[in-house]
Specification:
Structural class: alpha/beta
Strand order of the largest sheet: 1-2-3-4-5-6-7-8
Number of strands: 8
Order of helices and strands: HHHHEEHEEEHEHEEHH
Distance between the termini: 97 Å
Strand content: 15-25%
Helix content: 40-55%
Number of helices: 9
Oligomer: single chain
Length: about 230
Amino acid sequence: MMRTCSFSIVYLAFCSLLCTFALRMNKAITEDIIEEYDILDNEDSLEWLAAESLWRGFTDELQELHYLKGAKFINQLRLIVHEGDFQPIEGETNIFSAISEQSPDYDNLLNAARKAVEHGNKVYILPNPKGIRTADFIFERKGVYKMFDLKTIIGKNSVGNRLLESIGQTNHVLLNMATNYDPRLLAKDIQIYFQVNSQAREVLILKGNKELSVSRQFVMGKDYIKMFIKRYLK
């Protein structure tokens, strides 16, 4: 009876030690996993992930953007920039292209790219694969990546329709103003665009040598029309 009791005590002590060890190991493994995810969250690791990903070609990688959001979307932009076949344009600074000079919209894209570079952007001109809707540019400025659909404005009342055309391509639109456009009408066109497109994030306006970024927060703010006109005409 005494031997059985002693054995039971030893067995329980052993089980207690085993449980303690397992808990400590589980905590260590959990901390390692958390640390790994923390590492993946930083900017350097996103670049590393992009470099390590298997490149499938522009068509597949651009198509993938339609299914991604947040950090995964940005990581995909990085992948495209780092792995895509972009060539520096001779005579230009910080402009890289994946299309040929014979492309029908080449001059229009290059003109807008030059203006964007003047405001501190590194510009990547995207190809336009058949069968998918894609944007025109990826901009990189101070480590921030954005994808823009270009709309060059030459008509007096065309902004509204041009903005609506971009829905489904990207949530950032670049307006290259090549005409004198009524600022109040422009403000209202942009306001309507944000109202009908819940995914819209930014309308970036290039006017001469000036740049004006219009966000959803700005559009929904107090005295938007008045503030927009003041900034646009400044």
